[in-house]
Amino acid sequence: MTAIMSGYRRCPPEAPGMEVGVVPDSQPGTVRVLVSGELDFDNATLLGEVLLAALVSHRATLLVDLEQVTFCDCAGLNTLLTARHAALRAGRGLRVTAAGCRVERLLNLTDTRSLLT
To answer: What number of other Cβ atoms are within 10 A of residue 75's Cβ?
Structure first.
């Protein structure tokens, strides 16, 4: 697992199988969060920490790209929904801008897709 924040600072390797990058987006007031690998119980907490840190440090809407996520379980989904709630409370947003077929299936089965767009 590798987490990369703005300026490509690496977080300690705590859970294998996931990489996260946070980079400024071309749209003003937004920051892009790129996630790849497996998003599951073992690393969902780390993703949550990265998302919350991005909310605090960038004070922008988070555009989360899950296109390269190969697996996502309910812990990963809960992390996304919790981060969305935190973003809304802070007057910002969190949107999933891209998702692979496995993540799309999870969002559709749980009827949460509309909450993350």
So the answer is: 16
Q: Which two tokens stand for residue 47?
A: 């993703």
Instruction: Report whether 100 contacts 70 (CB < 8 A).
Output: yes
DSSP output for 82-106:
HHHHHHHHTT--EEEEEE-HHHHHH
8 A C-beta contact, residue 116 and residue 107? yes
- pLDDT for 6-18, tens place per residue? 443 344 444 568 9
Q: 89, 84, 81: which is closest to 107 by C-alpha?
A: 81
pTM: predicted TM-score of the whole model, two decimal places: 0.85
d(CA 33, CA 62): 7
* DSSP for residue 112: -
Joined tokens for residue 102: 């496995």
